[in-house]
Automatic annotation (TrEMBL):
Presence of keyword Protein transport: yes
The organism of origin for this protein: Phycomyces blakesleeanus (strain ATCC 8743b / DSM 1359 / FGSC 10004 / NBRC 33097 / NRRL 1555)
Protein name as it appears in the record: Gamma-soluble NSF attachment protein
Cell compartment(s), UniProt: Membrane
GO terms, biological process: intracellular protein transport; vesicle-mediated transport
Comp. bias intervals (Acidic residues): 408-420
């Protein structure tokens, strides 16, 4: 069946070539040739011979153009572009065919159809050449704007803006949004206009131009409808966070519900906004955890202020550097429970080789062991102070001496006179 269709298509192509050729006594009949070529394209398409079908449609379009039927010529090229897109998977050739169809519709005066072909060309080029797709979308929007039919270009604007944000061309995206805002003002579509204004401010902040963002916000607030909207409050909060350097306020603002109502790419970009000199909270938390593990030797971080106030001894132990004994304890070494003398403690500390550092699974255990060792040393020193030498002999009071008679000066004189 397919072979027969192909033979029929070849026969129709021959008839079309004959009708389009110039003879000695006749002129080319382009109407007849266009009909033959069109039947040949249909036969090739049914037979799934898509390359031959594209060639037949191209000749059909040329014949209609020479016959003065530009609209039919554009439709033929559109059919060829559709086969190239859906059946052959050749977006570059399909985009060229759509552009030719757009030009043919333009010459006929069908502006809407011409812009529609450019939109299809941009859609075909999205997977291969984003810049070319953006140009196609922008050209389609321009045609709608020139004919004052911007209401048909809203979806095209959204596609162009999405691609511009993906490729990080924020300035061009802002220009497209401003063009879209002009159309929305004419359409008196307040909700869509407020979303467009908020999107413009987000893109300006993404560039980092705080001054321009403030100017645009004042221009937007000249519209009383926008100044009283939820989008205006979000814009004001974003500017305040950017001016004060408040990253927390920025993150809270971009998580509000009306930001999620924006286009996907704009909402995704809003979540990446940061104030000058700051990064996102997720990045900060990751950095702080890494830094605390390097400074304090574990992921627990520094001791809390409440722990220091409630237990100063525990705070001192947490700030004391880890010594060999605590490392030995954490690595599984046995520490005798009985207290040791100062000489034994020094011998134990200086004779033991430095142990291999291992992650502390129980950071409180070394502190308790060290605390016990310190208490043992203090007890030993207390014993040394109490017992410095041999036990002293108990002191026995001596008997009181006999009273001695006290002599006066008169008694001495009498004794002296007796001797004389």
């Amino acid at each position: 069946m397919e072979a027969q269709r192909i033979r029929d298509g070849v026969k129709f192509m021959q008839e079309g070539d004959k009708a389009s050729s110039k003879g000695l006594f006749r002129k080319p009949d382009w109407d007849v040739a266009a009909g033959c070529y069109e039947r040949a394209a249909t036969s090739f398409k049914i037979a799934k011979s898509y390359d031959q079908a594209v060639q037949a449609y191209a000749k059909t379009s040329e014949a209609f153009f020479k016959a003065g039927a530009n609209h039919l010529a554009g439709k033929a090229m559109e059919s060829a572009a559709l086969i190239l897109t859906q059946n052959l998977g050749q977006p570059q050739r399909a985009a060229e065919a759509y552009q030719q169809a757009s030009d043919l519709f333009m010459t006929q005066g069908s502006i809407d159809r011409a812009a529609e072909q450019l939109e299809k060309a941009g859609r075909a080029m999205e997977t291969t050449d984003i810049n070319a797709a953006i140009e196609m979308y922008s050209a389609a929007c321009t045609l709608y704007e020139q004919e004052d039919r911007g209401r048909f270009a809203i979806d095209v604007f959204k596609k162009a803006i999405s691609l511009l944000i993906k490729s990080k061309k924020y300035e061009k995206a802002i220009d497209m949004l401003q063009r879209q805002s002009v159309i929305l003002q004419k359409m008196v579509s307040r909700s869509h206009l407020h979303k467009a204004n908020l999107s413009i401010l987000i893109l300006i902040l993404a560039i980092g131009d705080e001054v321009e963002a403030g100017k645009q916000f004042h221009i937007m607030c000249s519209d009383s409808g926008f100044s009283q909207s939820e989008e205006a409050e979000i814009c004001q909060a974003l500017l305040q966070a950017y001016e004060e350097g408040d990253q927390e306020l920025m993150e809270q603002t971009v998580r509000r519900q009306h930001v999620n109502f924006l286009d996907n790419e704009v909402a995704r970009l809003a979540r990446t906004l940061t104030v000058p000199g700051e990064v996102l909270s997720s990045g900060l938390s990751g950095t702080s955890s890494v830094t605390s593990s390097k400074l304090y030797g574990s992921t627990n971080g520094p001791p809390s202020h409440s722990a220091v106030r409630g237990n100063p001894a525990a705070a001192n132990q947490s700030q004391r550097p880890t010594n060999g004994a605590s490392s030995h304890s954490s690595s599984g070494g046995h520490i005798p429970p009985q207290p040791m003398s100062p000489a034994q403690v020094r011998a134990e500390l200086y004779s033991r080789p430095p142990p291999r550092q291992q992650p502390q699974t129980q950071p409180q255990q070394p502190q308790e062991v060290e605390k016990d060792n310190t208490r043992g040393v203090e007890e030993d020193f207390a014993e040394l102070r109490v017992q410095p030498g041999p036990k002293p002999v108990a002191h026995v009071p001596a008997p009181a001496p006999a009273p001695v008679a006290q002599t006066t000066e008169d008694d001495e004189d009498d004794e002296y006179d007796g001797l004389r």
